[in-house]
Amino acid sequence: MTNFTVIFSLSLAFNVLVTFRSSEYYKQWRDKQQSTTAASLLTNDKQSLADDPTVVWKKILRNYLLVYLLATCSDWLQGPYVYALYDYYHYSQHDIAVLFVAGFGSSMVFGSFIGGMADWGGRKRFVLLFAAIYAMSCLTKRT
To answer: How far apart are the first and last CA of the chain?
Structure first.
């Protein structure tokens, strides 16, 4: 198990590094390092900083990422419990694998057009619909 933990940790660190390197945050950090005059101008005028669209965008992005990471982590945490649930109902390992692949396959198929539907019908409405359906599906998996 230790080898998997080391490999996972190294892969996670590498992915975080590559993601940060390709993000706008890295470019902004690099620009701040190269030009200190621009940074001092932004910090002097607090009112224009509060009205700056990039500051507002960063705040929205931080809030979105927090909620997205919580939803993703809850989905990841559900995996082992679903496996234990299927095992409790005496499914074979092959059947459990088929169920997991079917779940990921349906995510691939439906995920390709649900985003467009959310743009059409309203993202907030679809997020609330997803939360309600997900909560109901979790309630049906009680042992």
So the answer is: 29
